[in-house]
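= Tokenised fold =
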Amino acid sequence: MEPGFVQLAEPGRFPGLGLLRPLLGSPQSLRSLDREDLTTFYRRHYSLTAAQLVTVGSPAAESLTDCLAQALPEMEEDPPPSRPPLPQPRVQERRVLLLDLPTAVQTEVQVGLATVPGHHPDTTGLEVLARILERRIALTLRERLGHTYVVTGKFLPRRGPTPFVVAAAIGSPHVGDALGEILRELDRLCRSPVAASELGDAKKELLGAFLRSLSTSQGVARQLTTLFVRGFSEDLDAVPRRVFDLTSSDLQALAQRHLSPDAAVIVAAGPAAKIRSPPA
């Protein structure tokens, strides 16, 4: 393995990263739970006073209210439970991490940045930027260099700081070159406005996916629920407006605020002996 990577082969070396820790809990933590722990957690976080009911269809409001009154127990007018505090992003400078998988055929590469919570007004622009970045890197790494088959750009808003991630499976000897291309494209988003045609294509793609999601009652209900969970008070009509209103200058400002390559976390999982170091 060339210099430039921090090895992540030993369990517990970076406990804060969650590496080699099951998301559903370790055997020790699961064995320590008892019935009282579970019921206390349920009462604290699954109160109906904190819920929002979404219905899509044509029931009369009065009949729906009557049905709910019969189906649900009487609820005390207690305030909804407070949500636990959200963790703040800790990454302030670039980190390059390697998990050595000696028998892997390729190396899975992910470049991520911690951005904003799902209710933040910058989320729409970051979703557009993820699609633009995915297209640019796919054109370079797949079409021009032939280093990968699939590139994904992901920005899936959540309640806490949302990861902005570019991922690809790369031939291990080309990992350094591929990472260099990804970092250069992040830097280009910060330095140069997106071309009008490129922005238009990304808007069409995002709006097309959104409109397809509204083709069924279930899809409409899911989108309304997503707005509620993310903390938006607006209706679905506002989603296309937020996309339409974005300009190239808006996207460049967003990239400068949230997508600096100097703050990226780079993770590579593959055979360390075959991986070349990323650029400094």
User: Anything to note?
Assistant: DSSP finds nine helices and six strands in the chain.
